[in-house]
Amino acid sequence: MSQDTSNETEGTESSEQQDPDAGHEGESITISLGNQEIVLRQRYELFSIINDIGIFLFFTVGSIAFYWHELFNVGVTLFVIGSVQLGFRPLIRFFRRVQLRSITKGMPHEVARDF
Question: At what angle do helices 72-104 and 35-65 cross, to 10 degrees?
Fold first, then answer.
């Protein structure tokens, strides 16, 4: 009686197959960006930060102004300005995306923490 070892070999091979992602843990991903794209991203990030600080100031000072009857109109005016600045946030992101698209000749790579 001869034993057929081909089934044993096949079973051993299938159980020893490696995960396609094995050995890639902890490797860093390097993305090459052009200098112009980095400068553009930093510029729009700065615009976004300045806008957010303005929103904070206008809404905070406007809220405090409501404590005094004489400053009620100032408070309302500051709230209107802060509300308009909230509209600038998507405009900043839109213009940044348009400029990045023209530089990258396609869809720019976005990350979740983009402003």
Answer: 170
Categorise residue 37: left if φ over 0, alpha if ψ from -120 to 50, beta otherwise. alpha
What sign for the dihedral angle of Cα 88, 90, 91, 95? positive
DSSP class per residue in 17-31: PPPTTTT-TTPPP--
Q: 């001869």: which residue's tokens?
A: 2
Distance between CA atoms of 31 and 101, rounded to whole angstroms? Answer: 17
pLDDT tens profile 49-81: 999 999 999 999 999 999 999 999 999 999 999
Q: What is the pLDDT of residues 28-57, one digit of tens each?
A: 444 445 567 677 778 888 999 999 999 999
Q: What residue spans define the domains of the chain?
A: 33-104
The DSSP symbol for 114 reads -
